[in-house]
User: Fold these one by one.
Assistant:
Number 1:
Amino acid sequence: MKDPIIYRGQTAEELFGKREEGTTAVAQAVSRIIADVRARGDEALREYSEKFDGYTGAIEVTKEEFDEAKKTVDKRVERAMRASAENIKKFHSKQKREGFEIDEGVRIVGQKVTPLARVGIYVPGGTAAYPSTVLMNAIPAAIAGVDEIVMATPVKADGKVRPEVLVAAEICGVERVFKMGGAQAIAALAYGTKSVPRVDKITGPGRDFVAEAKRQVFGQACGIDMVAGPSEILVIADGNSNPALVAADLLSQAEHDVNASALLITESKELAFAVKEELLRQLSVLPRKAIAEKSIENNCRIIVCGDLSAAAELANEYAPEHLELCVEEPFELLKKIKNAGSVFLGYNTPEAVGDYYAGANHTLPTGGTARFSSPLGVDDFTKTVQYVCYKREALENAAEDIMTFAKSEGLEAHSRSVEIRVKGR
C-alpha cells in the first residue's frame, strides 16, 4: 500500500482520487435487460435467473421456506437482530412528521403527509448476504405506514435465501420475498410482472448493474432512495488514537468490496505510519483478505495534515459515506462537519456499531452525494399533498395581485380564471 501523504493544500480529489463512475457498457446492458423484462415479464426474469445465477425454480419464497428459516437460524443471531430492530424503531420513530394547516378563516392552506402504497427493498446476495439491510430499509417504511413492503434478493442455483434474511423480513413484517437479483429485479419491481407487483419506490444497495438499473427507472417508473456506489470510510484520528483500532475500522469497509475506499486523515505522522503497519498485519489474518487487500492497495490513502480543522475541511470536501472522529473532543469537531452520511464519535464508536445496532440508518449517500443528500429515513417512504381553500372574501382580497402576477408572465387565462369569479363575465 502507498506511504502516507503530507497535506500541502491539495484538493480532496487530488489526495483521494476520483470516485468510480458507471460505464456506457453497463448502461447499455442494463437498458436491454429492463426493456426485456418490461416486454416479457416473468419469462424474462426466469431466463436471467438461470443465466446469471443458475437458478430455475419458483420466483417467490414460500411460507414453508419462511417456517424453515425460523427453525434453522442461529437463535443468538435472531436475538441480536431483534435487539437491533428495537433500536432502529426507536431512532426512526423520532423522524415521523405530521402535516400542518394554516386556517385564517377565509383562507386555508395545508399539507398532509401520506405513506407510499407499496415499496420494494433490494437486498444484495453476492459475496455476502445482509439481513441488516432488511431491517434498515423495512423498519422506516413500516413506521411511515407503507401498506405493503416487498423484497427482492438473488439466490444461487440451490434457490436458498439465507435464513437470517428471511427471519429479518419476518421481524419487519415483510411477507413477500422474491428470488431475483440484478437489473432484472429492479425492472420487475419498477414495472411489475404477473408474479411481481409494481412498487412506488425501490430502496436498498447493490453493485453496478443494480445501481444503474435504479438510475434508469427513477423518475419514469418509480422513485428510488439513491444511486449507491462502493462503500467508503474516512477516519479523522488524533495522535492519541490507537493505530490497531484505526486500522481495524479502515478494514471494516475494505472487506466489503474491492472498490471500497478506506481513508485516514491525521495530524500525527507517527500514527500514520503505525496505522500502515497495522493494516498490513491485520490483513494477513483477515478471512476476506483477497477482497480487502485489493481495496487497501487501490483505494486506501493516509493523509498527514497540520491540524484537525484542516482535516475537517478535507472531510467536508470529500463528503464520505461514513466518517469517524477518533479524537479526544469529538463533539467539538462535529461542529465543523457539514458533509457526511453518518458520523461516529470518539475512540469507542466503530462504524460497525452503526451498521448493525445503534439504530441510525446504514443506508447512506456515497460518492460525495452527502453534500446534498441524506441517510435513508422515514421521509423516504412518504410524500406530501398540499391543499388550498379560498373563500370568496379571500379571493377578492388577493385577486388584483394574482391577476397582475399572471399577466406579467403572459398567462391571460390564469388571470381570467380569477377575474371571472370576482367580477363576473
Note: The chain has a mean pLDDT of 95.
Number 2:
Amino acid sequence: MSADAIKLLKEKGFDKSLWMQFPRDVVIGHDVYGQIPAVCADLKLGSSALLISGKDTMGLAGERVRAILAAHNTVTSFVAGTISPTIIKDAESAAQGADFLVGVGGGRVIDTAKIVSYNLDIPFISIPTAASHDGIASARASVPVEGGHSSLEAQPPMAIVADTGVIASAPHRLLAAGCADVISNYTAILDWELAHRVKGEPVSEYAIALSKMTAEILVKNAADIKPHDEQSARFVIKALVSSGVAMSIAGSSRPASGGEHKFSHVLDKLAPGKALHGESCGIGTIISMYLHGGDWRGIRSSLKMIGAPTTPADVGIDDATAVEALLMAKTIRPERFTIFDMGLTRDSAVNLVAMLYKE
C-alpha cells in the first residue's frame, strides 16, 4: 500500500534531485542522556521541543530526558500509546510551535516522531530505548493500516542518542530481533540485485556494499551478542545506524527490505501480535537465502546463537500460517520485485517451511 492511499504525509512536490539525509550527531554509550543539551546546541535546534514517548517508555526514559531538556528548553510531552493516523494527527497538533521533536521509545514512538517531523518540516532526535529494528536511524516509517502495514517515506533523525545501559536492560528478545532485522539485509540486497537483472531496477552499489558489510559483521560476531550486555547493545546499535544510513544513500528501503520483509508484513497480518518485526524477518531471511542458493544454514546458525527464532513454532505460529504468508508475500508492495515473485507454488512453500526445522 502506498502513502497516497492513506494520506498521512504532506505533499512535498516534484524534485528531480536526490537528497541524502543522514544523522549529524550520533551519541552511543553509557548514561549519555546528559549530553542531549549539548547535541541540541550543536545542531542549533531551537528553544522549544515536543517530547513524544510511549505509555511505558515515558516512565522508563521519557521523564528523565524531559527533565534534562527542561533545564535548557521549553518542553511539552505527548504520549503515543500506539501509532495510527489519528495519533499522528494528534501529535502534529501538539507539536505546533515547537522548534524540534524528541522521540523517546521503541519503533512505534520513533516512527510517529519521524512522520510528524516530515509533515511539519522540523527536525527530530531519535532516542531509542530498545534496539529492535533499524527504524531508529532510517527515513522510513511503518504504520498499521487496514489490511496490514504501510511503509512510508519520513524524516531521518537529525541526531541519535542511544544509552547502552537503557537498551541493555530491555528484554533480550528485542535486541535479538534488531540483529535479525540487520541480518536480513543479506537477502534484501540479493532481491534488489535480482530486480536489477530481471526488471532493470536501478541499484546503488554504495548502499549495497554498506548494507552487506553491516549484515556480515553481525553474522561473524553473533556469538558475542549477549543478553543484558552493554557492549552487545553498543555493537547492535551501531549496526542499526549503518543500516539506516544505507537506506538514506539509496533513497529507499531497498538495501534493508526485500522478500523477507514482505513475508514479515503478511505474517503480522495473519498472526498479529505473535512475532516481532525483526523475528519474522529473520525467519523469512533463512527461506529467502535458500531460494537464492546461499548459505541459509549459516544464517540460521547465527540467528540461533543470538537468541532469535528460526521457525514459526518458535514464535507460536503454526506452519500452515507461515505457508500462507510465503504465498501472499508477493501481494505486498507488488512493485518491489523479490525472489518470492518467481512463481512459488504451494507445495514449494510447504517444503520451505518444513526445511526450517531440518538439522
Note: The first helix runs from residue 3 to 6.
Number 3:
Amino acid sequence: MDDITLDSIGPLRLYQRKGGYRFSVDAVLLAHFPVFSRKTRHVADLCAGSGVVGLLIAKRFPWTELVLVELQESLAELARRNIVLNGLEERVSLSRADIRELGKGTSPVISPGSLDAVTVNPPFRPLNTGRISPTGERAIARHEIALRLDDLMGAVKRILKNGGRLYIIYHPSRLSELTESMRREGIEPKRMRFVHPREGESSTMVLVEGMKGGGVELAVEPPLYVYRNDGSYTSEVEEMLGGPLQGANPV
C-alpha cells in the first residue's frame, strides 16, 4: 500500500493514490455550495472519485443519506474505504456504475425520480483539448472520455424528483454549453457563483444550482475568492476547510 496516502480536510480523512486522481480545492467549494433543508434526504454524488464531496456533504447535513457513484474501480475502492474510515457506513453507500445508465431502471441503488439532490464535479475538458494525463484515473476524471455533458444531464433528469436540485462545478469557458444542456433536460439554472483565484483575476470555476421543473429566475451571487494576495486562503475558504488542508491539488 505504498502508493496510498492518508490525507485530511478538517475532520474528514481520505485515502488517495499518490499517482492517481487526487481531489482539488474545487471539491471543497462544491461540497459547501448546497443549502439543504431537512426535506432534502436522498442525495447522490456523481463522479465521486475517492468520495470527498459526498463525505463532506454527509458531515455537513447529518440527516441525509448519500450514494457515491463512481465508474473507475480503483477510485470506487478508495471511496468504499473512506466511507468506513469516516464512520459513515450507515448513511453513505457506494455504487460502481456508469452514470449514463442511471435512471433507466437497471440500477439497484438509484431508481428513476428518487433523489432530492445531486452533486457532481464532472470532467469538463472535451476530447482532444489540453494535455491528457498519462494515468487513466486522471484522464477520465478530467476529459470527456467516459461521460459527455449531455449524457450527464440526461441521467440527472432521470434520477431527480420534480423540484429536485442539481449542484455542479464547471469551467466558465463552457458555461453556455452547461446551461443549454441543463435547460434541454428541464433543469432550470437557479443560482450561480463564479470562483476566482484572487481579486482582479479571471474566474476559473463556476458553481451552478439547477432545479428540475423550476421556473425561469436566476440569482448570481457575489464572487468567491480562493486566495489572498499573499497566497494564503481567504477567510471564507479557510472556514470551509475547517482546519489544515492536506493532500489536495491547488486550484
Note: The chain is about 25% helix and 25% strand.
Number 4:
Amino acid sequence: MGIASGEQSRYRVELARSGRSKCKGCKNLIQKGHPRIGLDVPGVKFTTTLWFHTQCAKVKTQNLLKAKGLETLDERTVKDIGSDVIMVKALPYKGGFSMGQLSNILSDKFDKFRNFRFGLPDDELYSSNWNWRAFISTMLVCNTREDGMLRFVEEFLFQVYPDPGQLAIAEKEDVEEIKKQMKKYKINPKGISSKAWNIIFATQNILENYRGEIPDSRTHLMKMRGVGRHVSSVTLAWVHKKSEFGVDRHVSRILERWGYVESGARDTIVEKLVKAEVEDEQIGHFSRSLVDLGQSVCGFTPNCGDCFLRSNCPTGRNLTDIEDLY
C-alpha cells in the first residue's frame, strides 16, 4: 500500500532500525523493530527526524493515521507500507516580518544585551573593569557553550584575576592552572592552550598600548591574537555601544531560516543587510537577541512548537504541526 509524497511530506512510519532512538513524547527508547512515527525537521544543512512511539503521538496524528486506513499501526502494517511518507497539510501562514520588525520584537522579548555582570556588583557595571571582563568573556565564548564560559569566568577566572593588572602578570604555571580550569568547565577543548595565552596577551596589550581601556576600533581590536571579526563586533557593541552586528552560528542560522540571508553568506554581507534594515541603536541588541532565540528554541533542530514566532516564521509555518505531536 503506497502513500503519496511531495513537498509537504512531514510524517513517516517505519520499524525502528535500532534501539537507540528516543521517543520525544515519553522520553524512553524505542525498541528495535517496533513501529515508530518520524517527523522530519529541516535544518540549515540537513534534515533531522524526531521519533515517537505510535501510542505517544497526539490525537491529530492518530486521526491522520485512521484517515489513511492505518488504524492499527502494527509491525505487519508498517512492513506493508515500507517507509512511505504520510502527507500533512501545512497550517495557514499569517505572514512574516521585516527584519526591522523582528528586531523590535526580539529586543522587547530578550534583555541580555549588556546585562551580564561577569561577577561584578551593581556599582561596577559598565566600568573599565566590566569592559575588560566583557571583552575577555567574548574571546572565551567562541566555539564554547555560553553557560560553561560564564561559570568559568565567574567561579574561577575573575575570582583569581579580578582586574587586568593581575592577569597580565600571569606566568607559565598560572597558565597551566587556567588551562586545567578551562578543561573542567569545558571551554573549547581543542583551543584551550591558545585561548589561555590569548586572553593574557590581549590584556597586556590593553594595558601597555591603550591605558587599560578597550580600544573602540575594529582595526586595533583585530590586531590582537585571538580576536576576529565576531569578537570585535560584539566587543564594539557591548563595550562602546556601537552599531555593530555580531554574527555567530545562532545568528546566521536564524537569519537563513527567516529568508533574510542566503545560506553560507559571508559575515560582512550579513552585517550590511542588517545595517540597511535595522535602526542603529537596535543592531547590537538584535544580534544578542538572536543568540537568545537560538539558545531557547531555534537551535540546530528548531523547537517550533514552543516558539512564539512560529506562525510568522517561513520555516516555522511548515513545522507548526510539531506541537500536535508532543
Note: The beta strands are 9-15, 35-42, 47-53, 85-87.
